[in-house]
Specification:
By secondary structure, the protein is α/β, with parallel strands linked by helices. It contains seven helices and five strands. The protein has a five-stranded parallel sheet with strand order 2-3-1-4-5, sandwiched between helices. The chain is globular.
Length: about 180
Protein backbone atom coordinates (compact mmCIF):
# COMPACT_ATOMS: atom_id res chain seq x y z
CA UNK A 1 0.00 0.00 0.00
CA UNK A 2 1.47 3.31 -1.08
CA UNK A 3 1.32 5.74 1.83
CA UNK A 4 2.49 8.87 0.02
CA UNK A 5 1.90 10.56 -3.31
CA UNK A 6 4.37 9.51 -5.94
CA UNK A 7 6.67 12.49 -6.19
CA UNK A 8 10.05 10.83 -5.81
CA UNK A 9 13.32 12.71 -6.28
CA UNK A 10 16.50 10.71 -6.75
CA UNK A 11 19.16 13.08 -5.42
CA UNK A 12 22.93 13.07 -5.15
CA UNK A 13 26.10 14.37 -6.70
CA UNK A 14 26.81 14.00 -10.41
CA UNK A 15 27.64 10.42 -11.28
CA UNK A 16 25.76 8.90 -8.34
CA UNK A 17 23.47 6.95 -10.65
CA UNK A 18 20.29 9.03 -10.69
CA UNK A 19 19.57 8.36 -14.36
CA UNK A 20 20.39 4.65 -14.29
CA UNK A 21 18.35 4.09 -11.14
CA UNK A 22 15.59 6.40 -12.38
CA UNK A 23 15.02 4.33 -15.50
CA UNK A 24 15.06 1.04 -13.55
CA UNK A 25 12.74 2.42 -10.88
CA UNK A 26 10.40 3.76 -13.55
CA UNK A 27 9.99 0.26 -14.96
CA UNK A 28 9.50 -1.30 -11.51
CA UNK A 29 6.97 1.27 -10.25
CA UNK A 30 5.37 1.95 -13.65
CA UNK A 31 5.87 5.67 -13.19
CA UNK A 32 7.42 8.15 -15.63
CA UNK A 33 11.00 9.23 -15.06
CA UNK A 34 12.22 12.75 -15.85
CA UNK A 35 15.93 13.48 -15.89
CA UNK A 36 16.56 16.85 -14.27
CA UNK A 37 19.56 17.36 -16.55
CA UNK A 38 17.09 17.83 -19.41
CA UNK A 39 15.55 20.77 -17.53
CA UNK A 40 18.78 22.78 -17.30
CA UNK A 41 19.06 25.88 -19.42
CA UNK A 42 21.57 25.89 -22.27
CA UNK A 43 23.54 28.49 -20.31
CA UNK A 44 23.78 26.18 -17.26
CA UNK A 45 24.90 23.25 -19.40
CA UNK A 46 27.52 25.39 -21.14
CA UNK A 47 28.76 26.71 -17.79
CA UNK A 48 29.17 23.22 -16.33
CA UNK A 49 30.74 21.91 -19.54
CA UNK A 50 33.40 24.62 -19.17
CA UNK A 51 34.14 23.27 -15.66
CA UNK A 52 32.40 26.09 -13.81
CA UNK A 53 30.11 25.14 -10.93
CA UNK A 54 26.61 26.59 -10.88
CA UNK A 55 25.81 29.36 -8.46
CA UNK A 56 22.56 29.53 -6.53
CA UNK A 57 21.40 32.20 -8.98
CA UNK A 58 21.97 29.68 -11.79
CA UNK A 59 20.17 26.92 -9.90
CA UNK A 60 16.95 28.64 -8.77
CA UNK A 61 15.24 28.78 -12.20
CA UNK A 62 16.26 25.17 -12.85
CA UNK A 63 14.92 24.03 -9.48
CA UNK A 64 11.66 25.87 -10.23
CA UNK A 65 11.37 23.91 -13.51
CA UNK A 66 11.98 20.66 -11.62
CA UNK A 67 9.34 21.64 -9.04
CA UNK A 68 6.81 22.30 -11.81
CA UNK A 69 7.42 18.80 -13.15
CA UNK A 70 6.84 17.40 -9.65
CA UNK A 71 3.65 19.44 -9.34
CA UNK A 72 2.12 18.93 -12.77
CA UNK A 73 3.30 15.46 -13.73
CA UNK A 74 2.79 13.54 -10.47
CA UNK A 75 3.01 10.67 -10.15
CA UNK A 76 6.60 11.02 -11.30
CA UNK A 77 10.19 10.13 -10.49
CA UNK A 78 12.73 12.91 -11.07
CA UNK A 79 16.51 12.79 -11.02
CA UNK A 80 17.79 16.05 -9.53
CA UNK A 81 20.97 16.68 -7.57
CA UNK A 82 19.07 18.63 -4.85
CA UNK A 83 22.38 18.97 -3.04
CA UNK A 84 21.36 21.45 -0.34
CA UNK A 85 18.43 21.46 2.01
CA UNK A 86 17.40 24.86 0.65
CA UNK A 87 17.15 23.29 -2.82
CA UNK A 88 15.04 20.41 -1.49
CA UNK A 89 12.83 22.89 0.36
CA UNK A 90 12.36 24.84 -2.87
CA UNK A 91 11.30 21.63 -4.64
CA UNK A 92 8.86 20.75 -1.85
CA UNK A 93 7.32 24.22 -1.91
CA UNK A 94 7.02 24.36 -5.69
CA UNK A 95 5.60 20.84 -5.95
CA UNK A 96 2.66 21.88 -3.76
CA UNK A 97 2.47 18.39 -2.33
CA UNK A 98 4.60 15.83 -0.53
CA UNK A 99 7.94 15.03 -2.15
CA UNK A 100 10.10 12.12 -1.03
CA UNK A 101 13.87 12.13 -1.53
CA UNK A 102 16.18 9.19 -2.09
CA UNK A 103 19.78 10.21 -1.46
CA UNK A 104 22.19 8.18 -3.57
CA UNK A 105 25.36 8.19 -1.47
CA UNK A 106 28.77 6.95 -2.52
CA UNK A 107 32.46 7.60 -2.15
CA UNK A 108 34.26 10.16 -4.29
CA UNK A 109 36.57 7.52 -5.85
CA UNK A 110 33.63 5.31 -6.87
CA UNK A 111 31.73 8.22 -8.37
CA UNK A 112 34.84 9.54 -10.13
CA UNK A 113 35.31 6.14 -11.80
CA UNK A 114 31.66 6.16 -12.91
CA UNK A 115 31.93 9.70 -14.28
CA UNK A 116 35.10 8.86 -16.18
CA UNK A 117 33.30 5.92 -17.81
CA UNK A 118 30.35 7.91 -19.18
CA UNK A 119 31.34 9.56 -22.44
CA UNK A 120 29.54 12.57 -23.81
CA UNK A 121 28.01 13.91 -20.58
CA UNK A 122 28.30 17.67 -20.11
CA UNK A 123 29.35 17.40 -16.44
CA UNK A 124 33.14 17.11 -16.26
CA UNK A 125 34.93 15.12 -13.59
CA UNK A 126 36.59 18.39 -12.56
CA UNK A 127 33.32 19.52 -10.92
CA UNK A 128 32.96 16.49 -8.64
CA UNK A 129 34.80 18.14 -5.74
CA UNK A 130 32.48 21.16 -5.91
CA UNK A 131 29.47 18.82 -5.89
CA UNK A 132 30.70 17.13 -2.70
CA UNK A 133 31.51 20.52 -1.16
CA UNK A 134 27.94 21.68 -1.84
CA UNK A 135 26.25 18.46 -0.68
CA UNK A 136 24.18 18.63 2.51
CA UNK A 137 22.91 15.10 3.13
CA UNK A 138 19.24 15.06 4.16
CA UNK A 139 18.56 15.69 7.83
CA UNK A 140 16.52 13.14 9.81
CA UNK A 141 13.44 15.39 9.77
CA UNK A 142 13.42 15.24 5.95
CA UNK A 143 12.40 11.55 6.06
CA UNK A 144 14.65 10.78 3.12
CA UNK A 145 15.99 7.36 2.26
CA UNK A 146 19.77 7.16 1.92
CA UNK A 147 21.18 4.32 -0.14
CA UNK A 148 24.71 3.07 -0.73
CA UNK A 149 25.25 3.25 -4.50
CA UNK A 150 27.84 0.49 -4.47
CA UNK A 151 24.90 -1.93 -4.13
CA UNK A 152 23.40 -3.48 -7.27
CA UNK A 153 20.73 -1.42 -9.06
CA UNK A 154 18.08 -4.14 -8.68
CA UNK A 155 18.60 -4.16 -4.90
CA UNK A 156 18.35 -0.37 -4.75
CA UNK A 157 15.12 -0.49 -6.77
CA UNK A 158 13.63 -3.06 -4.39
CA UNK A 159 14.58 -1.01 -1.31
CA UNK A 160 12.97 2.08 -2.79
CA UNK A 161 9.83 0.11 -3.74
CA UNK A 162 9.51 -1.24 -0.18
CA UNK A 163 10.09 2.21 1.27
CA UNK A 164 7.50 3.67 -1.10
CA UNK A 165 4.90 1.25 0.20
CA UNK A 166 5.96 1.39 3.85
CA UNK A 167 8.51 4.07 4.77
CA UNK A 168 9.35 2.30 8.06
CA UNK A 169 10.05 -1.08 6.45
CA UNK A 170 13.04 -0.05 4.38
CA UNK A 171 14.94 2.03 6.89
CA UNK A 172 18.45 1.79 5.60
CA UNK A 173 21.51 3.78 6.43
CA UNK A 174 24.70 3.21 4.49
CA UNK A 175 27.92 2.35 6.29
CA UNK A 176 30.08 5.30 7.26
CA UNK A 177 32.31 4.65 4.26
CA UNK A 178 30.37 3.03 1.42
CA UNK A 179 32.21 0.00 0.13
CA UNK A 180 33.76 0.15 -3.30
CA UNK A 181 32.39 -1.82 -6.25
CA UNK A 182 33.89 -5.26 -6.35
CA UNK A 183 34.95 -5.07 -2.68
Amino acid sequence: MNLFPDRIVLMGVAGSGKTTLGHALSVRLRLPYVDGDELHSEANIARMARGLPLTDADRWPWLDRVARVLDRRAPVIVGCSALRRAYRDRLRQGARGPVRFVHLAGSAPLIARRMAARPGHFMPLALLDSQFATLEPPDPDENALTLDISLPVDLLVERIARWRDDPDSASYHPPQAPREEGA
